[in-house]
Amino acid sequence: MTTDAERCLIVEDTETDRAMMRRIVTCQCEGQNFIFAKSLREAREILKTRAIFFIFLDNTLPDGRGADFVAELAAHPEWKHLPVVIVSDWPSPFLYAKAKACNVLEIWTKNDFKGPEILRVLGAKSRAF
Question: For the whole model, what pTM was predicted?
């Protein structure tokens, strides 16, 4: 179980996908705290002001690509150890190459975003540190 200070950040710009993700985490991930951001700008602000321990990141956002943002995270002294799962409807070979270079844990399609998978990567994260 996480404390109030430990939160997962979900970065997703599409309202219907955010609603689906919110429904899944509310019903299937009891005891976890999730915060939603609609853009990379909003994600950066949350990272500056809140304690985040895990990120689920869409690749196509209105202000940039998740694959580029993971490189930014990897270069940041406070954010470089944050585990990330990229959740994208259209994963490409380019996305996989960039993600691998930045130590992204996994790349999922939106259909892979399910309670058991979320809890599995969150559990793997806690065992890794």
Answer: 0.88
